[in-house]
Amino acid sequence: MNLDGKCAVVTGAGRGGRGIGRSIALALAGEGADIVISDFVPENAEAVAEEVIRETGRRAVPVQGDVASAADVDRLFKTAMEQFGHIDILVNNAGITRDGLLMRMSEDDWDAVLNSNLKGTFLCTRAVSRIMLKQKAGRIVNVASVMGIVGNAGQANYSSSKAGIIGLTKTTAKELGSRGITANAVAPGFIQTAMTDALPEELREQMKKQVPLARLGTPEDVARVILFLASDDSAYVTGQVISIDGGLFM
Q1: Chain Cα centroid distance, residue 5
Q2: For the chain, which has fewer Cβ within 10 Å, the N-terminal or C-terminal residue?
Q3: Sign, Cα dihedral of 21, 62, 133, 1
């Protein structure tokens, strides 16, 4: 899946260690893409950019910003265009959680998650669509969640934001398809990250037992599917939601 000469913007990519965004950036760069790494924490974005350069030899530009801010998003894509002159791939990965039961959930927790996850995806998609329409080509990949398909107790805000991303993905595919732009989503299930590492071993084992493949997914499992959707190998795939959950919700 050759991405030589391509430029990819990956949001929420600044988390090191076992972060999904980091794995996405490394996977795309590993196939030849130059990467613009967006993250709310500048040190995190810089660290992953340095890792991309060191591990793959590709160019990587860190940009600090909040995807829920239209001004920050405009600056992100302006920087990408100034650095590379084109944007071929957008991966909307940035997102947060603020879990709690619906009847006790504050408006602040609802708004924060919807703004970061759904509004952020909208703002970035709107910004890149203007660039890709002129290019008459592009790949947009949104990171949703299986919780946006089946829901989850204690995650009304998160599940709603991810369900909204799925609807936005399908609408984007219909609006931009005639200009050679595809839009797809991935829906990860239980993925082994720093957050799941902090869970009690007993709970992790319970999660594994629910998965037909009998293991938690890895960030690399997610990144490889996104790599396919970002490449020319998926040229006739658009408006789809691909679950990466080991068969959890088949």
Answers
A1: 21
A2: C
A3: negative
**For residue range 36-68, what is the model confidence (pLDDT) as tens digits?**
999 999 999 999 999 999 999 999 999 999 999
pLDDT (tens digit, 9 = 90+) per residue, 139-148? 999 999 999 9
CATH number at residue 58: 3.40.50.720
Q: Look at residue 66 and tell me if it is in a domain.
A: yes
Nearest Cα to Cα of residue 71 among 143, 134, 127: 127
The string of pLDDT tens digits covering residues 143-192 is 999 999 999 999 999 999 999 999 999 999 999 999 999 999 999 999 99
| Phi-psi group of 220: left, alpha or beta (phi > 0 → left; psi -120 to 50 → alpha; rest → beta) | alpha
Q: Could you tell me the residue range of the domain that residue 181 belongs to? A: 7-191+221-240
Exposure of 100 in the CB half-sphere (CA atoms within 13 A): 11
Tokens of 150: 């089946």
Instruction: Say how far apart CA 204 and CA 192 lie, in whole Å.
Output: 9
Contacts of 201 (CB under 8 A, 6+ apart): none
> In sequence order, what are the beta bridge partners of 155?
100
Q: How far apart are CA 27 and CA 155, in angstroms?
A: 29
Q: At 199, is the pLDDT very low, low, confident or very high (cuts 50, 70, 90)?
A: confident
Q: Structurally, how many domains does the chain consist of? A: 1
- 215 occurs within a structural domain: no
Which residues are known catalytic residues?
Answer: 158
CA geometry: angle 26, 9, 17, nearest 5 deg: 35
- What residue has token string 């530009």? 61
In a domain, 51, yes or no: yes
